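Hey, resending since the last one bounced:
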Amino acid sequence: MRRVQVFDVNETLLDLAAMDPHFQRIFGDAGVRATWFNQMIQSALVATVTGVYHQFGAHAMAALEMTAEQAGVTLGEGDRRAVADQLRQLPAHPEVADALQRLRDAGLRLAALTNSTEQVARAQLEHAGLLDSFELVLSADTVGRLKPAPEPYRMAAERLGVAIDQVRLVAAHAWDVAGAARAGCAAAFVARPGKVLDPLVERPEIIGADLAEVADAILAIDHGDERP
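The structure tokens again:
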């Protein structure tokens, strides 16, 4: 059986740089967007490790509040709304649509797996023109545990009707690759600028600078894989 390719959404497929003008306006520095995103991931990881669940969007807004407090900035309601709205209206990275189409044309099954709610993920993918690329859009919200906890990856395999080792998680985040691998999935790392792998985690067999390179490797490795 050929592996099912399961894609993370934010940063892997969609370009968060579209949010930079909002952070430039609010903080006077577009680079604060990376600080905010890292704080969001940290807060989500702390909640997951300590057994508490909040939707990913709540972590995004909490991280915005924390980032503003650290910077001595007072947020207005319009600022919060602008960030939340822009998260639903991110463009795809330039090579993504073609890479996904090549994988589909080769007969591979594609799904999305995100920490965002399914409603948000569908809105994001529809805005980016990618929604029809996937047979399923899956959310960690379904199991009340955020990636990189094992439950979302196991849920994806179950929903797709395959064994966990027949799932390949494609992501631009070291923590997502680690979570998938430790849950039993294969993995592929999209090494977008500034993204690196954790040296304490086994390296995935597929690493590429963008999704085009990753798709080339997937086609070489998984397209012809007809294992039962």
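The longest strand covers residues 110-114.

Sorry for the duplicate.
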